[in-house]
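pls design
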């Protein structure tokens, strides 16, 4: 794994921009809605994340944080 992300499911409005832009196609829309009634994005296979930051860049709600992992992580 070279990267990982955290999605704040309460900030997310389920627009799917991150789902569309992820080159690894590892982000999906959850089937459980958040407290605002939106179905938020979630990650299905974090081990494939490259830490490219595209998802965080396109998110209009600034709901995604990206972490870059060192080799020993
Ligand atoms: S950082 Fe890149 S690879 Fe990882 S989830 Fe976001 S868009 Fe996908
Ligand atoms: S781009 Fe942001 S607001 Fe849109 S689905 Fe992804 S995390 Fe949610």
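designed seq:
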């Amino acid at each position: 794994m070279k990267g990982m992300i955290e999605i704040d499911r309460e900030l997310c409005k389920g627009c799917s921009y991150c789902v569309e832009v992820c080159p690894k196609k590892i982000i999906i829309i959850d089937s459980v809605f958040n407290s605002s009634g939106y179905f938020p994005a979630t990650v299905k296979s974090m081990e494939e994340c490259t830490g490219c930051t595209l998802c965080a860049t396109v998110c209009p709600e600034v709901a995604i944080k990206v972490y870059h992992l060192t080799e020993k992580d």
